[in-house]
């Protein structure tokens, strides 16, 4: 008998009022600074991992929101054995990702990050802004989450 359990951890978020106050006092300027630093890191190729890490932390910087879990955990039990794995996604070949970065990724990611920040600054557009921030690594280098 095989039992498969897929679990996604949900973290408790701060209240809406706390998030709005944080955004007005700190999140607006800190997230703009983080967007600029992340994009500059991603231009250096060597700094791409740091830039992507900063982009992944943007929901926390903008409005104290925990980033969503990108990798679900799968637990498979067969008899006496239990196997725990995380969902890894197969990536495009490095050459294709490098060509994409040089021809499209560097400028398209800047447009997307600035648009996402403007949407977050409007407060009403925050969900779409966070969605765009989540897509930035894919736009930059065809990275699949």
Strands, helices and their partners?
Blueprint: E1 2-7, H1 16-43, H2 48-63, E2 73-78, E3 81-86, H3 94-121, H4 126-141
Antiparallel strand pairs: 1-2, 2-3
Write up what this structure looks like.
With 145 residues, the protein is an alpha+beta fold. The chain has one domain. It has a 3-stranded antiparallel sheet with strand order 1-2-3, with no helix packed on it. The radius of gyration is 18 Å and the shape is flat. The protein starts with a strand and ends with a helix.
Structure summary:
The chain is an alpha+beta fold and 145 residues long. Helix content is 61%, strand content 12%.
Main traits of this protein?
145 residues, alpha+beta, three-stranded antiparallel sheet, 4 helices, 3 strands
Terminal Cα span: 31 Å
User: Could you say how many structural domains there are in total?
Assistant: 1
- Determine the fraction of residues in helical runs and give it as a percent range: 55-70%
Shape: flat
- The average pLDDT is 79
> Could you give the order of strands across the largest sheet?
1-2-3
- Point out poorly predicted stretches: none
């Amino acid at each position: 008998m095989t039992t498969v359990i897929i679990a996604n951890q949900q973290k408790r978020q701060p209240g809406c009022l706390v998030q709005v106050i944080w955004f007005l006092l700190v999140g607006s300027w800190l997230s703009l600074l983080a967007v600029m630093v992340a994009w500059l890191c991603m231009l250096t190729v060597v700094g791409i991992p740091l830039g992507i890490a900063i982009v992944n932390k943007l929901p926390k910087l903008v409005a104290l929101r925990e980033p969503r879990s990108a990798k679900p955990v799968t637990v498979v039990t067969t008899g006496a054995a239990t196997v725990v794995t995380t969902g890894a996604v197969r990536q495009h070949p490095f050459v294709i990702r490098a060509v994409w970065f040089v021809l499209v990724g560097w400028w398209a990611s800047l447009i997307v990050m600035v648009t996402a920040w403007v949407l977050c600054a409007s407060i009403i557009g925050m969900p779409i802004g966070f969605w765009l921030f989540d897509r930035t690594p894919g736009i930059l280098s065809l990275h699949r989450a």
